[in-house]
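Cross-check.
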Amino acid sequence: MKNIVQRVHTIVLILFALLTLFAGCKSKKHVMEKPDHLINRITLVNILAESYIIESYLQLSPVDSVPKDEMARRYYKDLFDRYKITNEQFESSIAYYISEEKSAEKLLNDASALIVSKKSDLIDTTGLNLPY
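Predicted model, tokenized:
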């Protein structure tokens, strides 16, 4: 399970780096074969936004709290269970959507907009003035 959490952490970080790169570069279209059990794009956008929030929370959590790898395992297990997906589905769906430039750019833009929306909703409902 520890390896899966580390792989998910790595995938999320690589995904955002790749999506940023795709958003700024023009390249040839390359669409890979559609994987079995592809996660639909809207669901994947939600999962990516929640993954980003999980990663942010883990980075900001106190050092003396529960070990970060244990917290990450719990959060990602909960996330994947709620969406009824596996790590393999997540990885293959990400690879499929980012294999084509426009799809990757749209995925990044939609996930970013959702993250901003969730932040705004949190501020509106709690009155918090978050520093980020």
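Residues 2-23+31-118 form one domain. The chain is about 75% helix and 0% strand. Passed to J.P. for a second look.
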